[in-house]
Amino acid sequence: MKQDIFQAIADPTRRAILTLVAIQALTPNAMAQKFDMTRQAVSKHIKVLQECDLIKPEQSGREIYYHFNAKKMQEFDHWLAQFRQSWETQFNQLDQLLTTIKEQK
Prior knowledge:
By secondary structure, the chain is mainly alpha-helical. It is built from five helices and two strands, in the order H-H-H-H-E-E-H.
């Protein structure tokens, strides 16, 4: 079953994995050491992230390195942008209201 990107990033460990591989490509063993968990547990998280195209594998000799897929995260960012603009407008209106109330005192 293909995972949804929101399910993938809902888990704190998977978000932490994304942060790590955004800095540098890592093997599952290297990730397991960072999280003090088994390689098998990390592999389950990697599987979910890979199904959502958030990370991409690259074979290098006997090791598989996982890279951050910035393009997929950019798609997610574009989707969020529509809400970000609405929130910013509402916060600006709240700031103006609070400034007006403060000036009236």
